[in-house]
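Hi everyone,

Forwarding the result from last night's run.
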Amino acid sequence: MNQERIYKIILGPVISEKSAQLGESANLAVFKVVKDAQKPEIKAAVEKLFNVKVKSVQVLNVKGKTKRTRHGIGVRSDWKKAYVRLEQGQDIDFAFAD
């Protein structure tokens, strides 16, 4: 896998109450990834970008919601979510410095 692909796989963290609870209790990090990403690619990208050891990766496809607007009915895009379990003692800090 080339370097460009590593930087394009992870689109960003998923920040929610559920992902925060999983991060504290189960040592999981949740990321939004490109739709064609595979588990080994996600694992390599997280290890390279955040300098952590990954234990396992679980992925799921999130269906886009149907939304009603004044112009009619539209559909948001489908996307892929990755649950990344980190090795014991590893941590990813998503706090942004000012």
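Residues 39-50 form the longest helix (12 residues).

Cheers,
N.
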